[in-house]
Amino acid sequence: MFAACCACEQPGKGEAVTQISFDQHDHGKAYASAFSEDEPEVLSSATPRVEGTGASGNDKREDASRNDVSQTSGAYLTQEEKQREKDRLQMMVKAFARAAVVGVKCHFVKEPDTLQGAGQVVEATYYLTESLKHMIITGPDATRNIPLTTISDVVFFEESKVTSNACFRVLTREEKSRAIDIEYDSGEGSMTHLVLLTNEGGEDRENVITSLKILRLYSLAGTPKTTPRA
Fold first, then answer.
1. How far apart are the first and last CA of the chain?
2. Per the record, where are the segments of Polar residues compositional bias (predicted)?
3. Which run of H or of E encompasses 194?
4. What residues form DSSP beta bridges with 147?
5. Residue of 3, 19, 24, 179 whose CA lies nearest to 101
6. What are the Cα distances from residue 126, in Å, to 110, 134, 135, 187?
7. Tell me, what DSSP letter sits at residue 151?
């Protein structure tokens, strides 16, 4: 099933990016859980696999090296290597979130009117709310609001369950190299797939996938309770 449109407010573009903080003192247990040294599987589960992405030469070796790090996160990395990998992920997610709160230009595949029809690649912008709990995609005639807790998986398009669907025949080979599939529960009885095209392929696409997976974990962990004002 493809993404259904729903109305929601567009986040304020003028909101200060400096308000975003990934300091553990600010986000307490939620942030600590997402990056806990006691949960090294986060690194492997959040880092996408790189097989079949079309890399070559040095790119393949770099991707393989990064993949090796994710696969050995829990069992073989030293404490220094774990910390270095955790720091890398923190910097990557922080940069992703800061850009996404302001808004990032992208494209997505708009579903056709009929099941057998081809989709349409349209310009869009994706945002994260400042709470880092929702991803909002605004297109020319619709807005999609995806709570990160409803996301079940984010993968390279080549590894998606919907690659053979007629809707995505519209994608060129180059567009597929930039595409990711966000699978989430839209509350309509079956999982919904939103195919989003990043501005660049390669590392940019991988960073988007990894960042969304980590932020999903952060969102699932919840935020610290606040004391109600008198």
1. 46
2. 67-76
3. strand 191-197
4. 134
5. 19
6. 14, 10, 7, 21
7. E
Are 215 and 100 contacting, i.e. CB atoms less than 8 angstroms apart?
no
Kindly report the number of other CB atoms within 10 A of residue 116's CB atom: 8
57: left (phi over 0), alpha (psi -120 to 50) or beta: left
Q: Where are the alpha helices (DSSP H) in the chain?
A: 24-34, 41-46, 58-71, 79-102, 173-176, 202-221
Contact 184, 152 (CB under 8 A): yes
Q: What is the pLDDT of residue 77?
A: 83
Class of domain 17-221: mainly beta
Going from N- to C-terminal start, the domains of the chain cover: 17-221
State both tokens at 136.
């909002």
Query: What is d(CA 215, CA 221) in angstroms, rounded to the nearest whole number?
Result: 10
Tens digit of pLDDT for each residue in 182-196? 999 988 878 899 999
Amino acid identity for residue 160 in this structure? S
This prediction's pTM: 0.69
- Per residue in 84-123, pLDDT (tens digit) is 999 999 999 999 999 999 999 999 999 887 767 789 999 9
Regions of the chain where pLDDT drops below 70: 1-75, 115, 223-230
Q: CA 40, 156, 57, 87 torsion: positive or negative?
A: negative
pLDDT at 46: 56
